[in-house]
Design a protein that fits this description.
Distance between the termini: 53 Å
Number of helices: 7
Strand order of the largest sheet: 1-12-15-16-17-18-19-20-6-7-8-9-10-11
Oligomer: single chain
Largest sheet: 14 strands, antiparallel
Order of helices and strands: EHEHEHEEHEEHEEEEHEEEEEEEEEH
Strand content: 25-35%
Helix content: 10-25%
Radius of gyration: 21 Å
Number of strands: 20
Shape: globular
Structural class: mainly beta
């Protein structure tokens, strides 16, 4: 794949050294001088069996087989320019120059914005810094979504799934400090998640104790245990259960892990920065609903686009972890993950996860949000020829939710 250089400092053509703020702004606006250029790949190009070689430099070898065999056709669109909110950029410029990592890899002096807007490929901690950037990337102060999770066969036949309502709100490190929640900040709670199952199909056979309502608290301190509760509806008996969050466990018997869906601990992995490069990735969708299909039923079928990405490897510290390593392709402009290659402990390519985002200019209410709007995810499992597909039918950002919404009292009310 085509590689570009990543440097902590650049001298512009004028010969004057750029200021910290100028260098940060250049990373938030990487396409001011034009989009990436790859010979033969322009807007309107359709890549498939007859011309797959054009994609060799910008698509990982793990995906080229689908193009070469005709199981996937990629339609190319123009590169989207999606700078984040001005207030987030200001917060980054104001505070990022003071942020560092301690000996244990924890953030020091972080306030708001992107912790490490300037990554140096020669820095041995660049991979971990990129991971911290993903954790604190701008994705809004809150979101409410209606979603579904489905298992599909390799021939795109629906097997089982369920629909649910999901909400998340942040209480710390907001670009505008007045949006922080004092009680959550005092308790070190970065964000809280609420999930309510709406329609399990078929019945509740996915898991004998599929929770009707879930509540999860994520701490600002990465190594602290996530607090998690759920209300079970097993055998029509509703009761509140405290559950230890286990990111390495299979999620509701789908062929994905909870960490694939909900998130992981940064310190559970060793991070390594591999490259800054141009890649062909699922593009920002100019609509509200994503399309998945193709070979193995889980490839994004909406147009893809050329973007500058950071490639970062994560290797589990625990030898017993189901995964051997993961390779993330992170959007350089927004730090949104675009796809991830997942390998087993023997080094074999096991799964590929894709992320689909709507362009906020084309999403209802999105113009004021100006963040990548998650509308779908998929995980293709090549060992069993199945795809787990997560679809978002509606999403609302930054509409205030009272802190009490994320309380156990409220989840008990919702679970009745």
């Amino acid at each position: 794949m085509q590689t570009t250089e990543s440097s902590p400092a650049t001298t512009p053509a004028s010969g004057k050294e750029e200021s910290f703020a100028d260098r940060v702004l250049r990373n938030f606006f990487p396409y001011r001088q034009g989009p990436p250029q790859i010979p033969g790949i322009v807007s309107g190009t359709a890549l498939s069996r007859g011309n797959w070689q054009l994609a060799e430099k910008v698509v990982p070898s793990e995906m080229l087989d689908a193009l070469r065999d005709g199981g996937l056709t990629i339609l190319v669109q123009d590169t989207s320019d999606l700078p984040v909110n001005p207030e987030y950029i200001t917060a980054t410029i104001d505070s990022a120059h003071n942020v560092s990592l301690d000996e244990a890899g924890n953030l020091v002096h972080y306030q708001a914005g992107l912790p490490f807007p300037l990554l140096d490929s020669a820095d041995p901690q660049a991979g971990l810094k990129a991971a911290w950037n993903v954790r604190y990337a701008d994705i809004g102060d809150s979101v409410q979504r209606f979603e579904s999770l489905q298992l599909r066969s390799g021939t795109d036949e629906y097997e089982y799934g369920f629909s649910f309502f999901y909400a998340r709100a942040y209480g710390m490190h907001r670009a505008k400090p007045e949006r922080n929640i004092a009680e959550w900040t005092e308790g070190g709670i970065l964000y809280k998640e609420f999930m309510q199952v709406l329609h399990p199909v078929p019945s509740i056979s996915i898991h004998p104790q599929l929770g009707l309502v879930h509540l999860r608290y994520w701490h600002d301190e990465d190594m602290r245990q996530v607090l998690q509760w759920y209300i079970t509806g097993y055998l029509s008996i509703h009761r509140l259960v405290t559950l230890v969050y286990s990111p390495e466990a299979s999620a509701w018997r789908f062929p994905v892990l909870y960490e694939d869906l909900a998130g992981t601990y940064l310190h559970a992995y060793q991070w390594r920065f591999l490259a800054t490069q141009v890649a062909l990735v699922p593009g920002f969708v100019q609509g509200t609903l994503p399309l998945f299909g193709g070979q193995h039923a889980g490839y994004p079928l909406d147009p893809w686009e050329l973007r500058t990405v950071y490639v970062v490897e994560a290797v589990p510290r625990r030898a017993e972890h189901p995964y051997g390593r993961k390779v993330f392709f992170l959007d350089q402009q927004t730090f949104a993950p675009l796809y991830v290659l997942i390998y087993d402990r023997q080094g074999k390519h096991w799964r590929t996860g894709f992320f689909s985002y709507a362009h906020p200019e084309f999403y209802p209410g999105g113009k004021e949000v100006r963040v990548p709007i998650l509308i779908g995810r998929s995980w293709v499992d090549f060992t069993i020829d199945r795809a787990t597909v997560n679809l978002v039918s509606d999403a609302v950002y930054n509409q205030p939710l009272p802190p009490e919404f994320f309380s156990r009292a409220n989840m008990i009310r919702k679970g009745k």
